Amino acid sequence: CTTTSHDDSKCCRIPPGSSGFPLVGETLAFVRAYSGTNGVYDFVRKRHLKYGDCFRTNIFGQTHVFISRTNVAKSLLGSESIDFSKRYIKSIGELLGKQSMLCSSHEHHAFLRRHISNLFTFDSLASFIEHFDELTVQILKQWERKKHVVVFDDAMKLTFRAICKMIMSLNEEEELKRLQHDIFLITEAMLSFPLRFPGTRFYEGLQARKRVMNALREKIALRRKGFENKRDFLQFLLSADQSDKRNGELLNDEQILDNILTLIIAGQVTTASAITWMVKYLDKHAEVQDKLREMQMDCKYKNSDSTIAPGTLNEMQYASKVVKETLRMATIVSWFPRETLKDCQIGEYQIKKGWIINVDARGIHYDSTIYNDPTKFIPSRFDEDPKSYSFLAFGAGGRTCLGMNLAKVMMLVFLHRLVTTYRWKVTDKDWSVEKWAMFPRLRNGCPITVYPLQDT
Ligand code: HEM
C-alpha cells in the first residue's frame, strides 16, 4: 500500500532529507537553481542522488516531499484522492483568475473540467489539424527566405496563433500581436515576487491581465449582440449558456474568461518548448532524423498544397514515438504538487498534514529501472507501451492535461512538415536552459540554419 491514512505513527519515519537553515530552510538553494542555467530541477536531481527516490526539503517555509515512484504516482494522481489537493502558487492564481481550472479546489474543478472538456471533441480537433497545418506550412515557407531561425520564437508564434484561432477565431494581426505581448507579460509575472507597484514584473503582469480581460469581455459582448458568430470554443460556451439554462450548471462570464486565459497560457509555452526540444534532439541524432524523414517522405501529405487529414496522423507511428521520446526526455512539467489534507503514510514514510507531495515525473522518466539508458534519445523504446504511470508527460488521473491530444497533434504536424521540407543544423550547440522559466526550455531558443530538401 502506498498511501494510507496514518493511524500508527510509530511504524514509520519521515522521509530523509534536510530542513536546511532555520526560517529559510533550503529556499536559497532552490532559488539559486531557478536562476541558474541548469534549471530548477537541478535542485531536485542533487537531492534525489543523495537521499534516493523519496526525500524531504523545506522551501519558502513549507515542507516539500519529492517522490519518483510509479505506485505513488498512481495512488496520488490516479484517483485524485480526497486526502490530497492540487497545490498552486497564490500569485499564479491571481494572474490566471479565481475561476481558473488550474487553481480550483476539488469540487469546483470537477464542474469546470466537465464544461471545458466538452470543447475538445473529435470534430474540433479535426478542424484544428487543418488550420494548424496551414499555419505551419506558412511559417516554414518564410524560413526558406530567412535561412537562420530561432525555433522557439516561431514555435511560440505558431502555437499562440493556432490556440487563439481555435478558441475565439482571432486572425487580425494587430490584435494577435497585442494579445501575445500581454500573455507574455502575464507568464513572465508568474514566478516573480508578488510586489504590486509600477515597474515590478508582477504589477505589469496584473495590468496585462486586466487588458486581456477587457478585450475578451468586448468579444463576448459582440457575440451576445450577434455581431460575430463563429464556430469556435467561445461560441460554444456562449451558446451552451443560452440554450441550457435549466440545470443551473452553466459557466458564467468570469469562469469563461479565466479559463480562456488558462487554456492559452497552459498550451502555448509548453507546446512551443516541446517543439523546440524535438528539433534539438533530432539535430543531435542524425540517424533518427534520417529514418524519420524516410518514413514521412512516403506519406502522401509530403506536398505542402495538400492539407493533412486527421486520420493520417495515426499512420505516422514512428513520428509519434519521436514525439513521445521528446516529451519523456524534456519532461516539460517536471513535477506535480499536491497538498496533504491529513496525516498519512506513503510507502514506508510518515507524511504530515500540510506537507506538499511532489510527484517527480522527471525522476520517473529518467529512472533506469523503468527506461533502459534513460539519458539516450531512443524513440523505438516506445515500440512497447510504457508501464502504467511511467510516462507522465501530461500528468495522470483527474487532472490529466486537457490539451494532450492538441499538443500531440501540433508536435506531429510540425514534425512532419519540418522533416519533409528541410534539413537543419543547430548553430549554437549550448544546452543551457532559460533562467527563471516555468518550464524547462533552451536558453538560446535553438537557433538553426535550414537547407531546403530540394537543394540537398
Ligand atoms: C507539450 C505540451 C503540453 C504539456 C507537456 C502539458 C502538460 C500538462 C501537465 C503535466 C498537466 C497536469 C499538471 C498536474 O497534474 O499538476 C497539464 C494540465 C493542463 N493542461 Fe497541459 N500540457 C501541454 C499542452 C497543453 C495544451 C495545448 C493545452 C490547451 C490548449 C493544455 C491545457 C491544460 C489544462 C487546461 C490543464 C489543467 C487540467 C486540470 O487541472 O484539470 N495543455 N498539462
From TrEMBL:
Its cofactor is heme. PANTHER family: CYTOCHROME P450 26, CYTOCHROME P450, FAMILY 722, SUBFAMILY A, POLYPEPTIDE 1. Keywords: Heme, Iron, Metal-binding, Monooxygenase, Oxidoreductase, Signal. GO terms for biological process: brassinosteroid biosynthetic process; brassinosteroid homeostasis; sterol metabolic process. Heme binds at residue 401. Belongs to the cytochrome P450 family. Pfam families: p450. One of its GO terms (molecular function) is iron ion binding. Gene3D superfamilies: Cytochrome P450 (1.10.630.10). This is Abscisic acid 8'-hydroxylase 4.
